[in-house]
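JOB MANIFEST
job_type = single_chain_structure
chain_count = 1
residues = 338
[input]
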Amino acid sequence: MNIRKYAAAGIVGVVAASAALAAVAAPAAAATDIKIGTVGINAMGVVPWAQSAGIFAKNGLDVTDIQIYPAPPPSLAALAAGAVDFVYSPSIPIINAYANGGMALKVVAPADGFAPGRLAAAKKDAVLAAKLDDTGVCVSPTSGITRWKDLAGKTVSVPARGAQGEVTVAYSVKRDGGNPASINFVTLPFGAALDAVESGKTDAAFTVEPFTSLCKDNGLKNLGSPAIGFFTTETAVGMWVTTAKFAAENPTAVKAFQKSIAEVNRFGNTKKGWDLILQSANPTYTEVDLDTARKSSPSFLPSTIVKNDLSNPASKMLELGYLKKPVDVAGLLLKQYR
């Protein structure tokens, strides 16, 4: 298996610890080779863990390549070009690629998000919000930035333009009475983004775990939880997506992928399962040491995706001007595995 920026040594012990759980039997037929694109965050340890534990193999799949991208938009472009078969992306870049980029996509499975019922409570409790939201905005404690509208006129780094970081920050600033159009958004990878805040080259950086926790470890502070402010009743925020063409031509492989993700998500929501996922993701997958990653709150791995998980973000993107017209998201959502 060819895994970019991922060392096999990082999963030593994970296979043995997972063997009893996976109860893998040899597939009756030759496995279907698939290639997966993702980003270097904690939750994406589900892919190498599921491969090493035999979950994909049990369902007739063999992950021959895991490509690591700096942000979801490049991974979606790679998907459209046929370089990979499935990619991880939050809902916002998927909607953007579908509506503005003209990509024929199908959302096949949930990746990460919020536990049912917790989002409403987190909107009223900043401490709970910080525990539930794996995203944040890192600022210097001496910057004078203490609330969302203070980001107006400032330089804020995001991993990609028009994706979740930019849209959720813009929404938070607007809701707080600031002008998001005045923000100078620049693109930086997560590690470099923290360095830029620390050196004063930028005023703030959008982060995802483990970098949200690393912000505080570096003596900086988290301004708040932008995803909690943006999303309303959604459970799935991060999603697995493929092209409409691949879905139509490979329905068995898609269903096998959905079944595999459902199994790993169930186990990943347990304490033992999440720790194995962290071991698979860190340090070389995220370039953050495992001890630091373990300080971050576990991601919630949903069981399914419903229409609201796409329609709610789309309506806010329209409000902010990231979409020019309403989008019928029903065509995006493939029948989910139950």
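[summary]
The mean pLDDT is 90.
DSSP finds 16 helices and eleven strands in the chain.
exit_status = 0
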